[in-house]
Amino acid sequence: MLQRVSRGLLSLRRCGLRSASTVPTNQAQPGDEEEEVSATVKRIRSELAADKQKLKWRTPIGDRPEDWNSKLKLFSNAEQTSDFIVMMQKPIDLSPRSIRQWWENREERIERHMQQFVPERHKVLGAELAAAHFILYRGGAVKFINDTHWRRASKDGEFNLPNKFDPRYKVEALRCDNMELYYEGLENLRCLDSLKFLSFHNVESFDDWCLDRISGGGFPNLEVLDLSGTQITTNGLACLYRFPKLKLLILNDPKETLELELATVMLEESMPALKIVGADAIHS
Description:
alpha/beta, 9% strand
């Protein structure tokens, strides 16, 4: 009797297990989840590839099927600019004036390249000494905190500064007067927390774009800014709000035009501690 009961219980247990295995559940299997994720990833990648293809709306000249290609294309540069194309379309001009202009443009391109930001130099010297090296090498002047005099390079272009980071050197003032300074070189002036005086007097290449880059360089304690003799216009003055402690701004003539006069008045109103004066009052 007991054997029959036990056999019945075993058979019922087996039937229950079989029915439980066949009952559908809402839980997804691990394989199904992986397949769903992989399908989603493939769909996203295909959409991104399609979007990138749509963004390529312009085919470079010479790569289109209808374009005519010369055998001289082997000697062309893949990074040709519009200036190069315009130059090739102009007739050859070997006059002294044209040659001199070509030479000046070449020298400017070289100087712009030489003034570019070098991350390795800033890693070795730090922001303070890197800015000092950059300015002194190009004929400017630097004054550090606790210094009683301005530092300048000698006639041979030599100056005495450490060649590696030294926390004792903190730049307090920079004079870039009469320098050949371009937009690319201004990135070397950055993160000077102790800088209070900055002068670009008679830097002819300094314009509104240069001022915008300088204003974002990180000079929270700047008090005096000399922009006389530059190409600054009314549009460039709008970025001076980034100097919260600015006290003195030097321009060519704040009353040169009605627009400039109005801009300076509004700037002084928005920054009560600021005083704007003309270059005659400082450099006379």
